[in-house]
Amino acid sequence: HCIFSIKALLRRQTSCMLNEQSLKQLNRMTSCYVVHEAPVRRVAIFGGTHGNELSGIFLVKHWQENGAEIQRTGLEVRPFITNPRAVKKCTRYIDCDLNRVFDPDNLGRHMIEDIPYEVRRAQEINHIFGPKDSDDAYDLIFDLHNTTSNMGGTLILENSRNNFTIQMFHYIKNALAPECCPVFLIEHPNLKYATARSIAKHPVGVEVGPQPQGVLRADILDKMRKIIKHGLDFVHIFNEGKEFPPCTIEIYKIMEKVDYPRNKNGEITAVIHPSLQINIYC
């Protein structure tokens, strides 16, 4: 059983805060020494976790029909529609948000008749790609999402100590340069996110926008497609034994939520200034 090395671990450095839209540039992450990681052999690409976010749905269905461009030597790559009922109705979800129910309580619930559809589906997905937090879980899951926000092609990091994912993000960012590819950290000291991708050893969220719900934009789809291509390229060369040098990536994190100004009746009394309206990261 081969073990390949990457340069990883983190040295945190304080950096500047961002604008009033409540996204802050948190820090820079710098890898410091060699960390040995097992090869990645099984990869899933999720589309339709939210049934009205069409880029991932379109790509997954395309790859299910013709997956040549996502295949890499020595790698099993499985495109998968996570919430088919919501996809069919072009709605975010049927009973509850599928991307919030991959927690121990919901995954362990008894399969009774009135169980929410998404909880039942989460258990099915966990059975196929997990079990979560087990050695048998898939190595890597890309979960494809769209947003109405002008986030560009954003990579979502769930664990600031996941050396493999940090190196992958660094590779993807360089491959896409000079196009911006921000990294958004959703790590919380007290909470474990119950996302669909959290089943995997290395969960990767891909959030691309702006795109209205229920709409497919060619430029947004192409951006998502390129991110997956470069991510799979990284896995391939990583599995071949390449050692990646120390790297630094900028990350963003929500530091606070700022409400609109309101009058005594609780009604909003202001709008976002045009200079801030579409500037998510700057």
TrEMBL record:
Intracellular or extracellular location(s): Cytoplasm
Keyword flag Cell division: no
Cellular component terms (Gene Ontology): cytosol
Chaperone in keyword set: no
Top-level taxon in the UniProt lineage: Eukaryota
Record-listed Zn(2+) binding positions: H50, E53, H145
Major localization listed first in the record, in broad terms: cytoplasm
Active site: E207 (proton donor/acceptor)
GO MF term (any one): hydrolase activity, acting on carbon-nitrogen (but not peptide) bonds, in linear amides
Every Succinylglutamate desuccinylase/Aspartoacylase catalytic domain range: 40-234
Cofactor note text: Binds 1 zinc ion per subunit.
CC cofactor: Zn(2+)
Keywords: Cytoplasm, Hydrolase, Metal-binding, Zinc
Family: Belongs to the AspA/AstE family. Aspartoacylase subfamily.
NCBIfam families found in the cross-reference section: PRK02259.1
Protein name: Aspartoacylase
Lineage of source species: Eukaryota, Metazoa, Chordata, Craniata, Vertebrata
Gene (name only): ASPA
